[in-house]
Design brief:
4 iron, 4 sulfur cluster binding; Aldolase_TIM; 2 domains; TIM Barrel; alpha+beta; 11 helices; S-adenosyl-L-methionine; 13-stranded antiparallel beta sheet; rSAM_sf; single chain; Pyruvate-formate lyase-activating enzyme
């Protein structure tokens, strides 16, 4: 398996002599054959700025950095694929931060690109190639003309056309999971937040957070427009907003009005679930699906990343258990990182968390972050690091009734509320 690298102009090459290596946390590691799959459809190769690729020189048996202007290359995986290793690299300038993406190790093998990844879900619905951009433009114009005063649709049109967000695109295409953002504020200060960064963070937020408070009528219009099929999903809590439960009053009133007129489809919330009383009110209003974002079931790790304001991980657990006990199909948006998520103590804590809360689904989501910055703020490993592939095997063995996936699904018939 040959090392893949890029030149200063972004041209990608495979090295004829050097063997590709990966990273687990801050350690350079060998890549195992069983960790490799062909580069999936919808994946993107990118060069990592400010880096130098590292490969294994088979003649000397030593790790070696490529000289000159060569840069490391990583793959950005589509939803449905869980990365197992980061690219093997060192920073050429330790003060520089990588753009906020989830980089996966890529190699050249048998005449094609391969990545260190495992497929955990069907990627079809979230393959960008399945979003017809021409049809999307037509539907955006149609919806904006139909609801000319609805600021949420105007906001989502930029998300769909400008950022090419698939969830907001679905809102206009009237299919699958659609977006209805509601909050401009947040009760957490996530490290590397994708929609809002302090001026001194060193990160550039890849998208802009909404800056207004929608009316109940604006929310209801979007929900009723989207919930036209039995298996459609409308979701509060998007990458372009803060924490949706901070606007619980709007959500509850909108849900009550929608359900008084329409029983079709599913109402989902993507949330940090820290505001337990608000979450209970949203559950009681008839919530169907809840996806809770977490990076760890350990307090010190969780707090270092989320910087929660006015809540703790125990609040998150209480919210999830209340939802599960009341028939909501619950899942976690598990932000995973090779060399961290697969630590012995992290695995043990997460298994306990899942069992206590009655979770039905773990959505494995590759953490978009500058690795060095992330590793600098979280606790050091306390036990063995098992590797991501073995971690997935442990979860499947210890949690046989929990689905390992990558995105929100309509629940099985037996579990529908």
């Amino acid at each position: 398996m040959n090392l893949v690298y890029a030149d200063e102009n972004g041209n990608v090459f495979d090295h004829p002599d050097f063997i590709a290596l990966g990273r687990s946390g801050d350690m350079i590691v060998e890549i195992m054959e069983e960790e490799l799959i062909p580069l999936p459809n919808g994946a993107t190769l990118v060069s990592l700025p400010f880096t130098r690729p590292i490969g294994l020189n088979p003649d000397s048996g030593e790790m070696q950095m490529l000289p000159g202007g060569a840069q490391a290359v990583g793959a950005l995986l589509p939803q449905g694929f869980t990365r197992l290793c980061l690219p093997g690299y060192v920073k050429a300038d330790k003060n520089e931060k990588l753009p906020l993406f989830g980089y996966t190790a890529v190699v050249w093998k048998d005449g094609g690109f391969y990545v260190t990844a495992e497929q955990c879900d069907d990627p079809e619905r979230w393959d960008p190639l399945n979003c017809d951009r021409g049809e999307l433009g037509i539907q955006v114009e149609r919806i904006l003309a139909k609801y000319p005063e609805n600021r949420l649709y105007k906001h989502l049109s930029n998300c769909a056309l400008g950022y090419e967000c698939l969830t907001s695109s679905n809102t206009f295409l009237g299919r699958w999971e659609g977006a209805v953002p509601v909050s401009y504020s947040c009760n957490a200060g996530c490290f590397g937040c994708i929609s809002e960064q302090p001026d001194d963070s060193g990160f550039v937020a890849p998208q802009t957070r909404m800056n207004f408070k929608p009316t109940v009528e604006e929310v209801v219009e979007i929900m009723l427009e989207h919930l036209r099929e039995p298996e459609s999903i409308i979701s509060f809590g998007q990458g372009c907003e803060g924490e949706p439960s901070t606007q619980a009053r709007i959500i509850v009133e909108a849900m009550n009005r929608v359900r008084s007129q329409n029983s079709l489809g599913y109402i989902n919330i993507n949330t940090n679930a820290g505001l337990t009383d608000y979450m209970r009110a949203i559950v009681d209003a008839g919530l169907n699906l809840m996806r809770v974002s977490t990076i760890s079931a350990l307090d010190d790790h969780y707090n270092a990343y989320y910087k929660p304001r006015g809540y703790t991980l125990k609040n998150v657990e209480k919210s999830l258990k209340y939802a599960s006990d009341n028939g909501v199909y619950t899942s976690i948006n598990y932000l995973i990182f090779p060399g961290v998520t697969d630590r012995e103590e992290e695995i043990e804590a997460m298994i306990g968390f899942v069992k206590r809360t009655g979770l039905k689904l773990i959505q494995m989501r590759n953490l978009n972050i500058d690795p060095e910055s992330y590793l600098a703020i979280i606790p050091k490993a306390q036990g063995e690091i098992y590797g991501m592939k073995q971690m997935l095997e442990i979860f499947r063995e210890e949690l046989p009734d929990v689905v390992i996936g990558s995105y929100t699904h309509v629940p099985p018939a037996a579990l529908r509320r």
